[in-house]
Amino acid sequence: MMPGERTLSKAEIADALKAKGCFHTPEDGGHFVGVSGKHLSGYYNIDPALPDVELMSELCRQLVEPFKDAGVEVVFVPAIGAIPMAEWGPYHLRELTGRKVAGVWADKVKPRGFVIERTGFEMALKGKTVLILEDIVNQMFSVTELVKLAKGLGCEVVGVGGVMVKDTASAEAIGVPKLVSLYDFRYDAWEPADCELCQKHVPIVTDPALGHGQEYKEAHPDYEGGYTTSVGHSE
Ligand SMILES: [Zn+2]
Prior knowledge:
Blueprint: H1 10-20, E1 23-24, E2 32-33, E3 39-40, E4 43-44, H2 53-64, E5 74-78, H3 85-97, E6 102-108, E7 114-115, H4 121-125, E8 129-137, H5 141-152, E9 156-166, H6 171-174, E10 179-185, E11 189-190, H7 196-199, E12 204-205, H8 213-219, E13 227-228
Helix pairs in contact: 2-3
The protein binds zinc ion.
């Protein structure tokens, strides 16, 4: 959505993300396998929203608006799904404040972490007042790593804005003054041996867009609850 158009309410944002397939709440009845191998009762993913440029623009406008008086000079995001937010965030901050704002991202490194490695990015960030944006704030790992990187460059971090934020995340835990969320989510997570959904024989979702159920299926072909390609549909 471009400047001047009607903005979305929080409920409309949730509806838009739901319609795109960006989340499945525990009430939707899904049974997922996360990247950690844990079994999950919900699943959250920004990817289906990324092709909708107007929606991404509007989400970023709403995330930066609460920081318009914070003197933000740089918007800093973790690769990969949040990269468009390093463009739309600064764009909307300038629309709101009249001041030019830079946008940079940190690249992923294996096995787990982030690094500022692109030409000019460290220079753009050094010593600046920084806002961190992220698509999904779950275990707070990515945003906490970015806070460390920014502080290591002498930056002041004014806060974090997340499109979808787990109810257990907090500004205090991340170590920033403010955390803004457009959609608060929750789900249960269990080690496979303790999973309540396995005990109830709920089929595990194997769609590769929704976690690692397919790998689990290959390792556990005899799971009594069976497998399904998508939430709410049996094979
Ligand atoms: Zn399970």
